[in-house]
Amino acid sequence: MKILIVEDEIELQQLMVEFLSKEGFLLEVAANFSEGLEKMSLYQYACILLDITLPDGSGMKLLQSLRERGDSTPVVIISAKGSIDDKVEGLNLGADDYLPKPFHLAELLARIKSAVRRHNNHVDNRVTYKNVVLVPDDRSVLVDGNVLQLNRKEFDVLYYFIIRPEKLVQKALLAESIWGDAVDQADSLNFIYSQIKNLRKKLRDYDAEVDIQAVYGVGYKLV
């Protein structure tokens, strides 16, 4: 489950990353309005933790932009602004929760889980393409009704492609989306090849009517 943290206080940002990583989440961070807007426009997240006061803009504007384009990703506002007016404004713009600073990390975790759970209860987000059905809620994959066992990254890769059928995905963009900011530490992107190779074999073994096709020198697409 991938979470975006939009927070300009670097110490708090790092504390949240360290804590939530230990809880099994994949984290991406943005330290200002511009970075937050770019990541929210390009990638899908299970939840967004959003500060209101950013160096180059308002977190409220980011929330408004997200909702205006029909994106229902759960958003938990984390802010030193604890006034009722700010809380009401955030909730009216479509925030799922509002957590004033300072807060305990255990409470933040509970708020994240609650927001994601409420979102999933209202959305049937299973994805079907050809004879493959992917269920994000329990991270399961069915091919003609038979359970296809995938590891965590194989599931994430298939999910990324199945919601973008027939669309060419650049290798670097795929790496950032699945492996997060940690991909910057990798010497190369060759690890993607082995993940996709294993995934393709499993799909073939189950007679899936989909395949991930390599586009030489560019990336991949689901066909």
From TrEMBL:
* Example GO molecular function: transcription cis-regulatory region binding
Q: What is the top-level taxon of the source organism?
A: Bacteria
List the PROSITE patterns. OMPR_PHOB, RESPONSE_REGULATORY
Domain annotation OmpR/PhoB-type: ranges: 124-223
Pfam families, A to Z: Response_reg, Trans_reg_C
Question: Which SMART domains does the UniProt record give?
Answer: REC, Trans_reg_C
InterPro entries linked: CheY-like_superfamily, OmpR/PhoB-type_DNA-bd, Sig_transdc_resp-reg_receiver, WalR-like, WH-like_DNA-bd_sf
Per the database entry, where does the chain bind DNA?
124-223
The record's keywords, sorted A to Z, are: DNA-binding, Phosphoprotein, Transcription, Transcription regulation, Two-component regulatory system
UniProt key word Cell inner membrane: no
Q: Which residues carry this modification: 4-aspartylphosphate?
A: 51
The identity of this protein, by name, is DNA-binding response regulator
Spell out the CDD domains in the cross-references.
trans_reg_C (cd00383)
One biological process term from GO is: regulation of DNA-templated transcription
GO annotations of cellular component type: cytosol; protein-DNA complex
Report the residue ranges that make up the Response regulatory domain in this protein: 2-116
Q: Which organism is it from?
A: Sphingobacterium corticibacter
